[in-house]
Amino acid sequence: MKERAAARALSDKLGSLLWDMIEAPEPTRRIASEHVRDLGVDLSGDICVIVCSFESQAHRAGGRSFDAPDAEGWRQAMAELPARLPLSNRTVKLCTLRGDELIVIAAVRDGKKPREVADGVRRDLDRILAGASSSAGVSRLISSADVIPLACKDARVALAVTRQAGGDRVLAVEEIGVAGLLMSLRDGGDFHAFVDEKMGGLLCERSPQREALLETLRAYFASDCSQHATARRLRVHQKTVAYRLDKIERITGLNLNAHESRMLLDLAVRMNDLLQ
Description:
elongated; Arc Repressor Mutant, subunit A; alpha+beta; 5 strands; five-stranded mixed sheet
């Protein structure tokens, strides 16, 4: 009993510190990170943020609500999640619950992707919380506790897209595309972060190559993605346009033959122009 009480007290303390790391002003976040480290939680290396929500399977299927004993068991199981999950899944570093939102900080090891780690966490959640239907959004890979607030925001957007699509699954922020972008902008998304993510090293190219590549992109999108029309608009050879577009693909990692990639890059170029 004493060991369980001590474990619960430690779980509550770590949960409170995690909320400080997510929501508090920067100086308080730094202090919270130091306290977490002092309590034996190592957040060095690659990590990700997973945000989960839960619903009764009976409720999802349109069945009856829980009877009183069932409801009490459900609440108890939910309350115990932050203490039980780290014991069943060794990748979990921190875990905290508020309402029906569970936030998990998990280590990403052995070449796995955050999505794979989140799938494992969700399977454990479904075992611990019998009768639950869980949905999860997962952030991209991060390597510093300093960016946990931004990663948490990304994971929440991914979760929101999952729930709009019907829930009961895991969705990574990289998978949400334009729909996720629109939802993140609705919630006050970071334009600078979006531009940096989609344009990547393109903005780091030296002048005048950078200006030539950006000019080519603007002309390409204004010409309905026709290389021939782009060449005429820029008054250059079509092979020059093809070479520049190929270079842009290599720098950004986006496929300009894919419609969604073109949309995202077009938005990033327009946002970058507005932010200048």
